[in-house]
Design a protein that fits this description.
The protein is α+β, with helices and mostly antiparallel strands and about 100 residues long. The chain has a single domain, classed as Sandwich (Immunoglobulin-like), CATH 2.60.40. It is about 15% helix and about 45% strand. It has one helix and seven strands. It has a four-stranded antiparallel beta sheet with strand order 4-3-6-7, with no helix packed on it. A hairpin with a 2-residue loop joins strand 6 and strand 7.
Length: about 100
């Protein structure tokens, strides 16, 4: 196999491996009005840091969750958070994923 093709194959496999290690986050409903159901997978569920930021960068919610259920489900009460677009950040160890969510009462 030519070196160039081998290099491309190894590079592709490395990218696929890196993508597979990123936490996956699902939020329902979106927009949320009272409670936001969050499901996290593909990461260590024993030590999660959850933050919710306004688009201006203000932190409106922070929680560190340890030992959530084995399916990675938890609920955020957004009843007291004003309507708007927010960034939900989930951190597990060194990996982090951010998802845009909408709150509308």
């Amino acid at each position: 196999m030519p070196k160039f093709i081998l290099y491309i194959a190894l590079l592709f496999l490395g990218i696929q491996s890196a993508i597979a290690d990123v936490p996956k986050v699902t939020t329902l409903p979106n927009p949320a009005s009272n409670l936001m159901n969050v499901q996290v997978s593909n990461c260590d569920l024993n030590n999660l840091k959850i933050k919710l930021f306004s688009v201006l960068g203000n932190e409106v919610f922070l929680s560190e969750i340890r030992n959530i259920d084995n399916k990675g489900n938890f609920v955020i009460n957004v009843n007291q958070i004003p309507d708007g677009i927010y960034l939900l950040t989930i951190q597990s160890g060194k990996e982090q994923v951010t998802k845009r969510v909408k709150i509308q009462h």
